[in-house]
Write a structure and sequence with these properties.
Elements (H helix, E strand, L loop, with lengths): L15 E5 L3 H12 L3 E3 L1 H4 L10 E4 L4 H13 L3 E4 L12 E5 L2 E5 L6 H14 L4 H10 L1 H7 L3 H12 L11
Amino acid sequence: MTMPGLPVTLRLSGRPVILVGTGAAAQAKRRLLERAGAHVIAETDAWTGTGSEPPRIALVAVDDDAEAEAAVRRLRARGMLVNAVDRPALSDFTIPALIDRTPVLIAVSTDGASAGLAAALRQRMEAWLPARLGALALALRDARGTLRARWPDGGARRRAITTALAPGGPLDPLRE
């Protein structure tokens, strides 16, 4: 079976992202984009030379269907990838429900089929994922050189890490 899309993590820090809309959905998307470090701009700012690089993605969060469709057409005509909130058929990409244990991010996506289902799954998974998961990821990152020195062979290193992270292992990520 073919996947409906490919989950990716976009590094948006300092990059411009267009946000069209002013309501509650737009404000929620603004907060999410800002948490990701994006420089959120209005559609008109994108074409007046504001910023050092042109935006490449846009989010459209407006209630009116005709207004949303028009915005998507305008933005796509400028070569942008567009997400139209609650309109998967108009969207080039979807934004999943996120579990944030920075730097660990877990995305739950239904490819726009049901945001409610994605949110319900996210809530349940958040309950059983330890808060320290991000700290474990950072510790493993910081130990990368030591691990390479101890196990120079990539296969041996992967086996050692897999064993340490296995259920009941010394670094079991699901154990508090």
